[in-house]
Write a structure and sequence with these properties.
heterodimer; A: mainly alpha; 0% strand; B: mainly alpha; 78% helix
């Protein structure tokens, strides 16, 4: 029961920040200053989400993760299919782990 | 004639939904190993199957779910866990703010569902597309990813132990590869976009290393610093057209 209450609490505090901007900005026009900041947000968020998390993606084995990162960069540089990059990166990491006896 | 029109409108809505589901495939695949790990960990923490399911089905925010499991083990009070979750997931406030500028928010009826489906991954996808998505496309992508997250949790709880360790570890790269695949085409097109992303990554790495703030704050600060520098220094003011 305690865990269920915890889940409901976590749901509320996660949902509200997700929902509020949609309500606010559908009612009022987005201020120009905020709009300007928001335009660069995707790139800022992507960089933040990738590093340093990606390097630590394989616990205790950063080398394998770096190989996976490099594989993803190379693949997405030449091919625009996202799924291809995901599979290529995982396969490269897998090979490193497999042959190093992880 | 009118029947014809509404029929074709319905067909196009369904095809839009289907396109959203197809586009979600990389996210769908990326969520599976993470969700399976969550299910597995939930079981070893002593959480019941129903509770593990509710975690994924109601909270639908990976990092905070893992954190909750860890804190439950440490015996941290639920109220404190909720407070930490709030800080950790407050980055979605920034993401929803951005998405509200490209989503069709005039039709309010779907907004609760669309906003519930906002995750790092769906945000990353939508924010790097040229065309603004329709409501059906958005829902198709988000809820296909949702099914993967919730389904993966249950599978992990029940069967997690039989997945080879090496495969599970290497699939940890999947979501990062997704982010990289979304970022690289943008970075190729625009040098400032690449710089902003690098600043975000560097600031986040520095903050993580410093351990001065909690994880949730680190992410928010890094995003705001990089976006702020980008908006101030790198944006073409004349055209108001970014980068």
């Amino acid at each position: 029961m305690k865990t269920i209450l915890l889940i409901i609490g976590m749901m509320s505090v996660t949902f509200i920040p997700r929902y509020l901007p949609f309500i606010a900005f559908s009612r009022y026009k987005t201020p120009r200053l905020i709009k300007r900041l928001l335009r660069t947000l995707p790139y800022a968020a992507l960089g933040t989400l990738i590093f340093p998390g990606a390097i630590m993606a394989v616990p205790g084995y950063p080398v394998a993760a770096v190989v996976g990162i490099v594989a993803a960069i190379i693949c997405s540089w030449f091919r625009k299919e996202i799924i291809l990059t995901v599979l290529f990166s995982v396969a490269a990491t897998f090979l490193v782990l497999y042959f190093s006896g992880y | 004639m009118m029947i014809n029109n509404s029929l074709s409108a319905q067909t196009s809505q369904i095809s839009e939904l289907r396109q959203g589901i197809v586009a979600s495939l990389p996210i769908f695949i990326g969520y599976i190993p993470v969700a399976v790990t969550f299910g597995l960990l939930a079981k070893s923490t002593g959480v019941t199957l129903l509770e593990a399911f509710l975690f994924s089905a109601l909270v639908f925010a990976g990092a905070s779910q893992f954190m909750a499991l860890q804190l439950i083990q440490f015996g941290v009070s639920p109220l404190q866990i909720v407070a930490i979750t709030f800080i950790m997931n407050f980055r979605h406030f920034l993401m929803s703010s951005y998405l509200s500028t490209i989503f069709p928010i005039n039709d309010r009826s779907w907004l609760p569902f669309i906003s519930f489906g906002v995750t790092d991954e769906s945000f990353a996808y939508f924010s790097t597309q040229k065309q603004h998505p329709g409501a059906n496309f958005i829902l198709g992508l988000q809820y296909s990813a949702y099914v993967s997250w919730v389904g993966g949790t249950i599978v992990g709880y029940i069967f997690g132990a039989i997945i080879p360790h090496t495969l599970q570890a290497s699939m940890g790269l999947a979501l990062y590869a997704l982010f990289i695949a979304l970022l690289i085409p943008e970075a190729k097109k625009s040098f400032p976009a690449a710089i902003i992303a690098i600043i975000g990554g560097l600031v986040h790495s520095l903050l993580t290393w410093l351990k001065f703030f909690s994880t949730g704050w680190n992410i928010i600060i890094a995003i705001l610093v990089a976006a702020g520098i980008g908006a101030l220094l790198l944006m073409d003011e004349e055209k108001e057209e970014c980068l």
